[in-house]
Amino acid sequence: MNYIINISKEKEKSYILDKFKKHNVNYQFVDMKLGHFNINSIVDDRASYYPNITIYLYSFDELLNLLLEKRDNKGLNDFLRVLKRLNQANSKTIIIIDDESWYLKLLNGEYQTEKTINKDEIKEIVMTLEARFNNISIIGLDKNVIASYIHTTLYYHLKINNQITKG
Description:
The protein is of the alpha/beta class. It has helices spanning 14-22, 60-67, 78-88, 102-108, 119-132, 143-166; strands at residues 3-8, 27-30, 37-43, 46-47, 53-58, 92-97, 136-140. The strands form two sheets. It has a four-stranded mixed beta sheet. The chain has a three-stranded parallel beta sheet with strand order 5-6-7, with helices on both faces.
């Protein structure tokens, strides 16, 4: 099966690209409205099938600051509205934090945010994401394995979902 991984232009990370190049993973940079990474199959040199999965990649501090942005009267900010839309579309959404010890940092208050907020509130905001949006998973990974995780996860979602749609 021919496929290509699509990477948001804003997430051009050398530690990912170097691994993709080393393992001959096909990728391209695209303007993406949702997510930082997705995949599609290639048939007759054209994009054919996109599985319903989106991967985001953030540093822990980036994620916290997105979650702490000003909210409207419904308790949503731009980032949370996007996650809500993905959830309503039944899209599997994975948020990768490029730090495998992010949870320990969350517990110990070892992070930088633009707003001053106590660590129990921060913990609640982060940990309720998965409960609030049932299609979202948050994982922390070492930078050395992120490219492999992205590639493997997207590939198997494409493989399984493509087989389902073919019958």
